[in-house]
Amino acid sequence: MDNQDLFSVRGKHVLLTGGTRGLGYGLAEGFARAGARLVITGTSERVFDAAEALAGETGGDVRGTVARLDEAEHVDAFYRQALEQLDGRLDVLVNSAGIQHRCPAERFPMEEWNKILQVNLTAVFRLCQLAAGTMLEQARGGKIINIASMTSFFGSEGIPAYTASKGAVMQLTKALSNEWAGRGIQVNAIAPGYMETELTESMKAYNPGQYEQVTQRIPMHRWGRPEDLQGAALFLASRASDYVSGVTLPVDGGYLGK
């Protein structure tokens, strides 16, 4: 096996949630450019525009499907639809959809708490279940990549639900790896560092002091960009990571090491 084949995802069938903007769009772009067959999701028909744009930019096979991950009853139906678009075959699941709400903990609305936990954790678990069922039936194994966070490692301010959900994603990744790694499914996570996305724009507005403090701590002296995650995702989706499972890989410009 040469190195090109070892790291290749060409021809793999990939389902990636949350691919219309931000980190999800960057991840989708990486898979499309690498030759994967890709279905991305979004909460509205905007997903079809994003899929068309990605296909045009990369020359890849990219399709879209609407997925309301905040509605538990819709998760199974959307998964079946996405699997049909992939001709019933799934090699890689990337759980990159996520939401947050910034508010002091003592005033945090319970409706926001429940919505965030549903999207960021419960839907992730259900999709892992569904994907594992498909992969085990295929008897060809597969890769599951969850998107964790810096808040998987430490607490943060003003985002208690997001922090709780991402801490749980890291532990869930370990638990599922323990059950499925021996059956041919590697389950890993990526923990993006502080990234320039719409989700993190709120920090600049609500807590500029924290924003500056974070920037000064990053050894690479900049916030990350969506494309910075592509290499880690392609590695975890390829044969190169066949003996890697249960890991949460920080992609953070060195933040956690300082």
Automatic annotation (TrEMBL):
It comes from the Bacteria. The keyword Oxidoreductase applies. GO terms for biological process: bile acid metabolic process. Keywords: Oxidoreductase. It is an enzyme of class 1 (oxidoreductase). Residues 12-193 form the Ketoreductase domain. Its EC number is 1.1.1.47. Gene3D superfamilies: NAD(P)-binding Rossmann-like Domain. InterPro entries: KR_dom, NAD(P)-bd_dom_sf, Sc_DH/Rdtase_CS, SDR_fam. PROSITE patterns: ADH_SHORT. GO terms for molecular function: glucose 1-dehydrogenase [NAD(P)+] activity. The keyword Lyase does not apply. Belongs to the short-chain dehydrogenases/reductases (SDR) family. This is Glucose 1-dehydrogenase. It comes from Candidatus Flavonifractor intestinipullorum. The lineage of its organism: Bacteria, Bacillati, Bacillota, Clostridia, Eubacteriales.
